[in-house]
Amino acid sequence: MSDFLVELKNFARLAQANSKHVQHEKMSSKVCLVSLKFDSENIEIAKRLTTEGMEKQDRLNYLQTLREHLGKEVFEFSTCNRILYVGFDIEPEELVAGVSTVSNISNIPFKHATGSDAWKNLVNIASGLDSFIVGELQVMSQLRNAINFHREHALIGNYNLAFFDHIVSANRIVRKELGFTSSTESMLNLATSSLEDILEPKGQAKSLVLGFGEMGAKAVETLLHVNQENIIVASRNPDESSTRNLDLASKCTMITYHEIKDYAEDIDLVISTRRCSTPAYTKENPLPITSKATLLDFSWPPSIDYDAVPPNQTLLGMEHWIKLARNLDQEAYQTMMHEAEELIESIQKRYMNALSDRNEANFRALIYGQMEKLSSSWQSSSNATQEDSLQMGAFAREIATWICKQNKTFHLSELSTFIEGTNRHLSPDLLLEVAKDVESSVISMTAGT
Predict the structure, then answer these.
(1) What is the pLDDT of residue 185?
(2) Which DSSP helix (H) or strand (E) runs through 208?
(3) Which helix (H) or strand (E) holds 81?
(4) Taking each helix axis from N to C terminus, what angle separates 138-152 and 158-178, rounded to the nearest 10 degrees?
(5) pLDDT at 27 over 60
(6) How is residue 79 annotated by DSSP?
(7) How much is the pTM?
(8) Residue 22: what pLDDT?
(9) Cα(342)–Cα(253) distance, rounded to whole angstroms?
């Protein structure tokens, strides 16, 4: 085959002919956001509605049921202080009604936003401007995980996922401009000085960390940083959770929650990062620790009920950390928030222009959609091993991304070189099949057939 020259303008024309133009004035009917930020008045509803603490399969079942009920694509995101849903091609009132029906919770006091306002709210959240600790980085990691979860389980298609690409991109700009790239990674950083004050008079203390997810691992890192050696980590499945960070796990005693009572003697410090929709430790089911200990609860909703703490122990819960975090210079805070508002407004204008450029948007949708179709045939190919099949969806997106990032033209040989030079461990026969299918598809689409 000769080295075929691909002109992207032909793709754009084909995409334009088969799609509707997205206009500024129609944006409000395309995207809506309903959100609930936790406070003392809505906390009981929030505890019932949040997916924090849910097993992955339970969360997936819930979101699949919601999508089927609404007949629309919906994105869900829960953090320690908020729950939000993004709906596509749906009015906010219909989205709220669907969430209420599927969750069996009535009168949820959601706040609504549509179109560009929804986008700006999401950028605020992703950038840490709406967090307990302004600029904290963890929320962006959580948002990325949520986006990946929806992508991996086909809850949202590539076209609507592109909406979140703009959120992530805007977040990077905001963080860079406001200097948030070196800010706190989590509330555990805020508590480092408190930890040092607690541990300094004790020297070597006996510490118990509840949970070994992202926050739990950060807790262990913090304890090691202040030269603590006697660290116990409790989780649902120690063998499985250890694999998340083998190096840190090797420096701790890994146990189950049920085994805490066997290690409870002389505990000095408890750090809870345990995710649960209701407190795991209550007056009826307290932590099996009776020693004079300090309890640091970083979970939200809380994992330790204040009523569960005996008089000889001190509980520093989320209310304590929020109060500590808000001891900011108000003038500096207001200046920073005003700067952030102007910056996001500027980014949003550029975003709206990009969104209304149908050639670019439709071009991306066309390419990603075609590669997604091809990936289905690769997954079932006789040349694909089971391990190969699991990689086909991601590999197809990589190919689509490469095509979309080219300028006005490229040669098919360049595309084939990219495919065959992948770092993925795929069988040579399968790579040849992929390259051939992509070449044929590109030629066909360029010709408009």
Answers:
(1) 41
(2) strand 206-210
(3) none
(4) 170
(5) no
(6) -
(7) 0.49
(8) 39
(9) 49
